[in-house]
């Protein structure tokens, strides 16, 4: 068995774990599990070229869950003493009302996997190196252009040790590093301001930010966006052709189809995608997967928060809906495989189906040809966040860097605008798919039911024949020819 | 990272948390800090969701955490822990003192002056034990009844994301090296339901309604909540798209809150001193129409944004933010006030870690005199927004573009539902274009706004 963090540091024994599980199933129920978590984190922020904020912290606890039919009982404690864990287990047990289940004896350990084999987790690395990163980010953004007036550079990392034990004999341990750097800045001229931001990271060690994606890389990108936005024109309004650039614009998939394909919504038939398996929901050029097994990625996990190994799951294949993202509860109730997508924010939260890294596979089109094929439309390459109403399928995502395309040529930058569409049919309007698949830099955090988890997205350049753009321009597209 | 030890097992419930916070501050000072501040939070929660008449989840728990911020002159750092053992608290303090050495000297860093500290006296009507007074089965019944009322309301309501009942209490202690030690307790309960309606073509719509109160006695009936939720959901069925146009837009109170949020972010001292807000430097200037008055008041008894002192131990107060369209005050904590050469408005918000942020008290827009129906009656054609989607707001420039759905206004009345549209403009102009304000101000949280009419926006559709 692997590192035994909780055995070593909290004196837990196998007998303790068996006892806790026995208490959890003392009133019956189909399944019970305990999730132990020990999270240490660091964060640093530089503003006005000063390190103004530095913090570190530790949060530890245990969540106990009992499943009985469709019911979930849940209790947690931030005190890992046997009395408090037993109390939580007995509280969660109250969801069921039958005779006690057979006691659990012995566990089966999940096979070890190593998608993020860091030797020195960044939380344990020297703080001075992290200070260097944020100071370099600040300096590089300011050096980019004298119009860059305000810069904030931040760095945050964490190490999450987890242990999941289940009444089916599950015994799963993982140690999950996560690090992220971000630079945001404001460019100012007389009477005009604009903002830009960039960041990235993953389940990486600190040297990633020295060797691969440096503070200068993020700083230049943030500064470039801010300077560009100084000259942005009003965005057009109404339906038009939209070309999405590669990488982070994959947030389209996350909002338009990803959430709607989470198994809980489909089990409850509250998703606009319910009952559409085997049906066409996208053009033939679209194949969408969720893949939790990509090394070093922000959205990846060796094991999900129910102890199940993550996998690559095909959601849409050549336009046909193939499957949902599932956790233990939904897979049992729906009679389908557990795809290893049961995730939670912390020991205080009940796990549910969540995305990992969600992306559209590359096609055959040359990105240049895609741009050239557009008579009048927009080319959006960077986005803020997005949101979806999974029941009616309507989703939005907000472009932060976009350009007009006029007669097949990218012309002027435009102001940020929200794009809105309908999840179950937006991908049917994808007429071209580029050969340039990229994943995002590692900045995504997804919220669902008040729980935040890190995720990744990716997409090649694609063309959507019709999408509504929420600009302010008073005239139609022709008005932009001036 | 140093490791936890077996000593973590010696937690004693009933430890005096005020004493503990003062002790942590004292030990930080003994350790060489020139100033220190400690926050302790303790809370418990109960929640249940009933879906299609069956209990779906039951959750019950309590937790606590402690955080410390230390200063060495003008340098500062913060640490936190969920583990209250002596060993863990020692480690938290040692880390904070070490960490402060690597931060920069910031001339404006520090806790408030001694003379600024305090706690507003009297009972603020924030804590009621009755939120937990219902037996378990009764709590479940609240959730069940809210959902059942919605499901029974109309045959088109065929599904639900569930009815819920939540209760929580929280206790907070703040202590600092000026000798300030303050505490307060707050309670909360809520009942909510999110029904799903389906039309004859199978298209689904979801909406929700809720009631929240500090005392169970003040919570609206689950039946009342279920009925409103059903009506709000049904009126969305059969939604159409519309053509791109420039029309008057009316925001229902729930979505009008978001306009107040944007004003809040715009006058937030942190955005102001960095020039990251289009309202920076506008103090004393006209930023909205004569009819716009915005107030932040952390002292209102029973309010959802009420507390006796802010996140730094400064007594809360009432601040006029905008008066008849003129920007009267930013909202500030100690740091941002010093940066701007002003006084704190007692809006410091303190999490466990990091430097204090800025948060609202009870923050609202003064209502007008017209009932909302009358406000709508004056509009021949327009959009009534009941939901915004996404976050397309840029506070540096004021650029505004959001997804929306709602109801079409025709001949002064609400007619058919509309969806998949965008609403866009610029906040600088929008604040001046609030052409009508209704009388329906109601607090359903710390932020409240009556129905608003805004002109000059672009409605994007087909």
- What are the segments of chain A in which pLDDT stays under 50 over at least 5 consecutive residues? 475-482
Kindly report how far apart the N and C termini of chain A lie: 70 Å
Mean pLDDT of chain B: 94
3D shape of chain B: globular
- Output the number of helix runs of chain B: 9
The general outline of chain A is: globular
Q: What percent of the residues of chain B sit in helical stretches (DSSP H or I)?
A: 10-25%
3D structure, described in words:
- The complex is a heterodimer of chains A (482) and B (462).
- Helices cover 20% and strands 39% of the residues of chain A.
- Chain A contains eleven helices and 24 strands.
- Chain A has helices spanning 5-10, 14-24, 82-93, 127-144, 208-211, 215-230, 251-258, 263-267, 328-334, 367-372, 423-426; strands at residues 31-47, 50-68, 71-77, 108-109, 148-166, 170-189, 192-202, 237-244, 288-291, 312-317, 320-321, 342-343, 352-353, 357-360, 376-388, 394-406, 409-414, 417-422, 430-433, 438-439, 445-448, 451-454, 456-459, 462-470.
- In chain A, strands 1, 2, 3, 4, 5, 6 and 7 form a seven-stranded mixed beta sheet that branches.
- In chain A, a hairpin with a 2-residue loop joins strand 10 and strand 11 (320-321).
- In chain A, helix 2 runs parallel beside helix 3 and helix 4 packs parallel to helix 6 (215-230).
- The longest helix of chain A has 18 residues, at 127-144.
- Chain B has 462 residues and is of the alpha+beta class.
- Chain B has three domains: 6-115, PmbA/TldD fold; 129-234, 2-Layer Sandwich (PmbA/TldD fold); 239-462, no CATH class.
- In chain B, 21% of the residues lie in helices and 36% in strands.
- Chain B contains nine helices and 20 strands.
- Chain B has helices at 17-30, 86-99, 136-153, 222-234, 253-267, 269-273, 334-340, 372-377, 427-432, and strands spanning 35-51, 54-72, 75-81, 157-176, 181-198, 204-206, 209-213, 245-251, 294-297, 318-323, 326-327, 348-349, 357-358, 362-365, 381-389, 399-410, 413-426, 434-437, 447-448, 452-460.
- In chain B, strands 1, 2, 3, 4, 5, 6 and 7 form a seven-stranded antiparallel beta sheet that branches.
- In chain B, helix 3 packs parallel to helix 4 (222-234).
- Chain B starts with 16 loop residues before the first helix and ends with a strand.
- Classes of the chains: A alpha+beta (482), B alpha+beta (462).
- The interface between A and B is large, with 95 and 88 residues.
């Amino acid at each position: 068995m692997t590192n035994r963090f909780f055995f070593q540091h909290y004196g837990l024994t196998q007998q303790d774990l068996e006892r806790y599980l026995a208490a959890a199933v003392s009133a019956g129920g189909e399944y019970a599990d305990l999730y132990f978590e020990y999270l240490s984190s660091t964060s640093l922020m530089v503003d006005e070229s000063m390190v103004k904020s530095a913090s570190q912290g530790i949060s530890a606890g245990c969540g106990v869950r009992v499943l009985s039919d469709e019911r979930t009982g849940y209790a947690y404690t931030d005190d890992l003493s046997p009395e408090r864990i037993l109390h939580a287990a007995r509280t969660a047990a109250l969801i069921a009302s039958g005779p006690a289940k057979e006691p659990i004896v012995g566990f089966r350990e999940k096979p070890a996997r190593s998608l993020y084999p860091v030797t020195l987790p960044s939380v344990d690395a020297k703080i001075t190196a992290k200070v260097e990163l944020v100071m370099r980010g600040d300096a590089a953004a300011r050096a980019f252009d004298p119009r860059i007036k305000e810069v904030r550079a931040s760095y945050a990392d964490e190490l999450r040790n987890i242990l999941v034990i289940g009444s089916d004999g599950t015994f799963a341990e993982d140690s999950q590093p996560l690090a992220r750097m971000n630079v945001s800045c404001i460019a100012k001229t007389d009477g005009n301001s604009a903002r830009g931001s960039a960041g990235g990271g993953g389940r990486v060690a600190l040297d990633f930010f020295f060797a691969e994606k440096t503070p200068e890389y993020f700083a230049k990108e943030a500064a470039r966006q801010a300077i560009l936005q100084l000259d942005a024109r009003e965005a057009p309004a109404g339906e038009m052709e939209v070309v999405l650039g590669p990488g982070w614009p994959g947030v389209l998939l996350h909002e338009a189809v990803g959430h709607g394909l989470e198994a809980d919504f489909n089990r409850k038939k509250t998703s606009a995608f319910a009952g559409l398996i085997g049906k066409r929901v996208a053009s033939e050029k679209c194949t969408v997967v969720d893949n939790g097994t990509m090394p070093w990625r922000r959205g990846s996990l060796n094991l999900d928060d129910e102890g199940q190994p993550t996998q690559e799951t095909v959601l849409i294949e050549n336009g046909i809906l193939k499957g949902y993202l599932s956790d233990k509860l939904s897979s049992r109730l729906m009679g389908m495989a557990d795809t290893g997508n049961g995730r939670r924010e912390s020991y205080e939260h009940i796990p549910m189906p969540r995305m990992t890294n969600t992306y559209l596979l590359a096609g055959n089109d040359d990105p240049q040809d895609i741009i050239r094929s557009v008579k009048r439309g927009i080319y959006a390459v960077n986005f803020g966040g997005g949101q979806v109403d999974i029941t009616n399928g309507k989703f939005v995502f907000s472009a932060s860097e976009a350009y007009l395309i006029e007669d097949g040529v990218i012309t002027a930058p435009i102001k940020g605008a929200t794009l809105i569409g309908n999840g179950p049919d937006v991908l049917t309007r994808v007429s071209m798919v580029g050969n340039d698949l990229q994943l995002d830099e590692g900045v995504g955090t997804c919220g669902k039911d008040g729980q935040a988890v890190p995720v990744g997205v990716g997409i090649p350049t694609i063309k959507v024949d019709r999408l509504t753009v929420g600009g302010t321009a008073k005239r139609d597209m022709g008005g932009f020819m001036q | 990272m140093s490791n936890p030890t077996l000593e973590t097992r010696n937690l004693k419930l009933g430890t005096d948390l005020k004493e503990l916070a003062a002790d942590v501050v004292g030990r930080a000072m003994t350790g060489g800090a020139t100033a220190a501040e400690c926050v302790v939070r303790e809370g418990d929660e109960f929640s249940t969701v009933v879906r299609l008449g069956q209990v779906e989840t039951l959750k019950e728990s309590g937790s606590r955490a402690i955080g410390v911020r230390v200063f060495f002159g003008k340098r500062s750092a913060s640490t936190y822990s969920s583990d209250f053992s002596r060993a863990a608290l020692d480690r938290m303090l040692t880390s904070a003192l070490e960490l402060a050495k690597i931060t920069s000297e910031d001339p404006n860093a520090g806790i408030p002056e001694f003379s600024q500290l305090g706690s507003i006296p009297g009972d603020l009507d924030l804590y009621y034990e009755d939120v937990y007074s219902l037996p378990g089965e009764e709590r479940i019944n609240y959730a069940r009844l809210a959902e059942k009322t919605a499901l029974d309301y109309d045959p088109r309501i065929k599904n639900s994301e569930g009815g819920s009942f939540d209760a929580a209490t929280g206790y907070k202690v703040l202590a600092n090296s000026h000798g300030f030690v303050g505490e307060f307790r707050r309670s909360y309960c809520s009942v909510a339901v999110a029904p799903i309606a389906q039309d004859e073509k199978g298209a689904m719509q979801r909406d929700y309604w809720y009631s929240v109160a500090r005392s169970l006695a003040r919570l609206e009936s689950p039946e009342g909540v279920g009925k409103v939720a059903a009506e709000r959901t049904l009126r969305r069925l059969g939604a159409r798209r519309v053509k791109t146009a420039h029309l008057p837009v009316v925001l229902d109170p729930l979505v009008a809150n978001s306009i107040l949020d944007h004003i809040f972010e715009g006058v937030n001292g942190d955005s102001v001193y960095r020039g990251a807000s289009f309202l920076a430097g506008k103090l004393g200037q006209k930023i909205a129409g004569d009819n716009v008055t915005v107030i932040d008041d952390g002292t209102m008894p029973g309010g959802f944004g009420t507390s006796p002192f802010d996140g730094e131990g400064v007594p809360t107060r009432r601040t006029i933010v905008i008066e008849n369209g003129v920007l009267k005050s930013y909202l500030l904590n100690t740091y941002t006030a010093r940066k701007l050469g002003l006084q704190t408005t007692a809006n410091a918000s303190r999490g466990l870690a990091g430097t204090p942020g800025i948060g609202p008290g009870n923050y609202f827009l003064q209502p007008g005199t017209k009932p909302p129906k009358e406000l709508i009656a004056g509009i021949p054609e327009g959009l009534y927004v009941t939901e915004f989607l996404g976050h397309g707001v840029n506070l540096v420039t004021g650029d505004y573009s959001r997804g929306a759905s709602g109801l079409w206004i025709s001949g002064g009345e609400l007619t058919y539902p509309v969806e998949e549209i965008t609403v866009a403009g610029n906040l600088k102009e929008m604040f001046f274009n609030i052409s009508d304000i209704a009388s329906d101000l109601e607090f359903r949280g710390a932020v409240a706004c009556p129905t608003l009419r805004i002109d000059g926006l672009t409605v994007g559709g087909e």
